[in-house]
Amino acid sequence: MTTSAVDGKPISKDERHYHPQATSCLNEKMVYGAQNKAAYVRDTSLQPYESKDETFEVKLPEGVRTADVTVELSYEVQSPENRVPIHKVTRRVTLDR
Amino acid sequence: MKPRPWILLLLTAVPMLASAKAKSIDELAALFDSSRCKQCHAEIFAQWEKSHHARPLMGVSDGLMLTPLVKASAFQLKSPKDATLKTFPCFKCHLPQAVDHAEDSVAVELATALFTASDKDKPDADKAAAKSKVAKLQITCIVCHNEKAITHKLVLGSPEKDVIYGSSGDKAHGDPPDKVFTKVKKSAIMGQSIFCGQCHGTGPNFEFDYPIQCATLYGSYQHNYLAKGGFQSCQECHMKKVGGKADHLFTPNWNDKVGTSKFLAENISLDVQTLGYQWLRKAGSLTPMVVVNTKIENRAGHRIPDG
Q1: What range does the domain containing A27 cover?
Q2: pTM to 2 decimals?
């Protein structure tokens, strides 16, 4: 989730990661690869029939009353560089009424 | 009465032929070669060719996923010559036909190919040839429609060698009948999630000397989706009918980013709500802020991600 001023200047960036997390059970380090994983220790995956609700609060810099918010949901395959886009939503949010 | 010697010879010969195992990758590929199916099932065969079942050892983006196994895991090898079938617990799901129909020599040949393909000092032609060799190993039509078609062997027996199992059955296979698989019989489980669950996992595989854990989709399906009231089978979502027949692409094809993106977007929703206001902690201390609430809903029959 990123926010930026209307002139494009970045204000904030935040991420959430959703996936099962496994270790070898021989130490505390998370690992990838079936040959290394023995058991899940944490599971933040998207679960069936459940919603994943998040709140992001962004303090606006001095003098900024309007910001552009972009929320992107994507699937990372093997590495963060290999992304499959799922949804992208952009909103302009203002303090002015 | 003593049996005649020639009868004895015949009785001992048949089991040997029946239990002949592949000694090489080419022999294993030939044993389960399903290219003949294309003659009558061209559309389904074309779908399968694009699926991950046609490249189970290639990983996403056609990488050799077994290289880390043989080079940097508990199963690693000092030399490919040391490989045995036990080196590759992944065969259980990624190449199930190898478990009962391959000799250790197939494991040696595979390990050799993996070492060659990942050796930066080898010529590109050798590396490409090694990769092509690994790519010959596929989950073919015969694997699902014969080898894995029966789970209840104690009451239904093992799959018969001349039978293709499908969602309907008790008929000749083709007109005139196919020369190898002459009959079609109904598989009790082919349309049910348990069929896919044979490979798409419930948790750690404790039967190996190192408890590997790969896919846990079937476990998530059973213990989460069904528990919350879901009723659809794997096949209903991942093999939707195309032209009246089950789609053998087994969506998603991760090498098709556009198609996969569309599939994920259909099954995962994102709702975004935003608010701009000034928060008041105490008198005189207004803080201007933007609040973003997101709600993601998963309409799949299992956790995402999983495999």
Answers
A1: 17-48
A2: 0.90
Residue found under tokens 């130490």: A27
How many structural domains are present in chain A?
2
Looking at beta carbons, which residues of chain A come within 8 Å of B210?
35, 38
Indicate whether A11 and A58 sit together in one domain.
yes
Would you list the DSSP string of chain A? -EEEETTS-EEEE------EEEE-SSSS-EE-STTT--EEEEE-PBPBT-EEEEEEEEEPPTT--EEEEEEEEEEE-SSTTSEEEEEEEEEEEES--
For helices B124-135 and B104-117, angle between their N-to-C axes, nearest 10 degrees: 140
Partners of A70 on chain B (C-beta within 8 Å) are: none
C-beta separation of B144 from B41 below 8 A: no
Give the C-alpha separation, A8 to B178, whole Å. Answer: 66
Each residue of B2-29: pLDDT tens digit? 444 444 433 333 333 345 999 999 999 9
B8: tokens are: 């004895």
Comparing CA positions, the residue from A60, A62, A72, A51 lying closest to residue B291 is: A60
Same domain, A81 and A95: yes
Q: Is A31 on the interface with B (CB under 8 A)?
A: no
